[in-house]
């Protein structure tokens, strides 16, 4: 840790689990994934803990395995922007971040929705950009799965540039109310825009005046070379990191900061935020045992087989979850066994070789390996231990904060807010109150000029 700089303030987002293996939907204490009361409870709790933002993922298609609907997932999730717009009415400071796919949407429509959310929330909107070249998901849309994999970031970069052109088509003072005339006066070219590229050729007038943040906060996940360049070259304000160990996380952190500097971006302009989970106990031994129970509830034997099928691309139902890893090689070029799940491991053979080495070194079974490689950064211990480990990770530049999730919807965050947040505040690493009025303020992001050159 660099002792000459001020102590970093931890950024916290809350991720409400949905269509994934991390949510233990079978727990008797689990609530609905659709009822607004679940979203409201989680968001209000996050705001009580002075979290920066509330984050919702996206599922555009019901996942399938060999042509049948997954029976391992929670089925369905309401549209993220719709849910967050409702949450704007029951929160005051919490940022509201939606995952929206740049492949299957259009700049004008999405820019309008996000600008509207930013207005309605008083400047708390955020957009997590994701991309897809998945024909299975694409069949739900007019274009289908037309986009080549290598064009995903081309479209995403143009999409973001077009959206920013739309958001910046208004100045803050473009509209003035004339009380005597009983009408609004606006600059003649307010809202006028034009954008032309390989993916989009659009022009007209943007219908939503400049929003409180100027532009919503932009987030992105992606650790490929293309993703890192997109993240550091003026794309997102924050990037989700998948790295669990401090050494890997520090290397990723340095890489993004160095790339940002080469692009002329000021230090700290790209925040790094890994997903994380926590398990608390009265003693460390209690927490470790509880973590073991939760992990086995999250990833059943059948669930472990399915998770490994996403990389092997083979039917692994005949392999014992409590036995060794499959002795067959992956078949990445065969028709997909799993449809609708993001492919995060690009080289199946290299990934399987790495996993076999991990399993051999730790004497992992198939299920234990799945728990190890598909888990989030885990902080397990007493509240004091978890607070210290979170703080140390950030102060040593493993990240700028965390996206905290829980196995239990919607009450899983309560324990963290009640027991860990006060300790982080005592350490001087977490605010005791919100500093600003917008999400951009609270994240410590550089302020946007009133009008950005386009």
Automatic annotation (TrEMBL):
UniProt keyword annotations, A-Z: Flavoprotein, FMN, Monooxygenase, Oxidoreductase
Keyword match Flavoprotein: yes
Ranges where the Luciferase-like domain occurs: 30-396
InterPro entries named among the record's database cross-references: Diverse_substr_monoxygenases (IPR051260), Luciferase-like_dom (IPR011251), Luciferase-like_sf (IPR036661), NTA_MOA (IPR016215)
GO molecular function, one term: monooxygenase activity
Family as reported in the entry's similarity comment: Belongs to the NtaA/SnaA/DszA monooxygenase family.
Protein name per its UniProtKB record: NtaA/DmoA family FMN-dependent monooxygenase
